[in-house]
Write a structure and sequence with these properties.
mainly alpha; globular; Elongation of very long chain fatty acids protein
């Protein structure tokens, strides 16, 4: 039952870095909160659950983790490159953003498939035949399935809904999150960051008055 983390030092090193990387990934969530910008459920739920599951799996040296790590590294390399370009005031085509979300959805489907395969393997080969626990499989498939539902909902609202097709999109307030409080605006009416901030400030003021 020797784990790939113990057997291959290179894989073990990158797995260790992957687990540690989940901490700095919380940084953009902190910045959103400090800037008092809207924080959608998908954003913080995804970051927190991945952090907890990654650390839990590392303690077990989970065998299937190699698949999840490789997928995550690949998708995040594309995603954070896109965010870096946006931060540098470059404007990648909208199709790139759609591609990234599609890659994330594909990652969730593959993740569920791997867990189903791992469960079947344990049933046929025996529970001690692979370095993965039944509890880990249950947690992992629940996590991946919930991600799929949330990302599919986000994809529909952002790219396929009637408002999205009309050019009305959720207000984008950060490089890695979108305000989706059920409100859409015509993106052509926003000329810069100051317009977004003014609009958000107005929404906050209205909420305070309503209270």
């Amino acid at each position: 039952r020797c784990s790939f983390i113990e057997h291959d030092r290179v894989s073990g090193f990158w797995t260790w870095l992957f687990v540690l990387s989940k901490l700095p990934e919380l940084g953009d969530t902190v910045f959103i909160v400090l800037r008092k910008q809207p924080l959608i459920f998908l954003h913080w739920y995804h970051h927190i659950t991945v952090l907890m599951y990654s650390w839990f799996s590392y303690t077990e040296y989970t065998a299937s983790a190699r698949w999840f790590i490789v997928m995550n590294y690949c998708v995040h390399s594309v995603m954070y490159s896109y965010y870096a370009l946006r931060a540098l005031n470059f404007k990648p085509p909208r199709s790139i953003a759609m591609l990234i979300t599609t890659l994330q959805l594909t990652q969730m489907v593959v993740g569920c498939a791997i867990n189903i395969w791992a469960h079947g393997f344990l049933q046929t080969a025996g529970k001690n035949s692979c370095n993965i626990s039944e509890m880990n499989i249950k947690l992992s498939i629940a996590m991946y399935f919930s991600y799929f539902v949330l990302f599919a909902r986000f994809f529909y609202k952002t790219y396929l809904s009637t408002n999205a097709r009309k050019g009305k999109r959720p207000i984008q307030v950060t490089a890695s999150s979108t305000a989706t409080n059920g409100q859409y605006i015509d993106s052509s009416t926003l000329t810069g960051k100051s317009d977004v901030q003014s609009l958000l400030a107005g929404q906050t003021s209205n909420k305070i008055k309503a209270q």
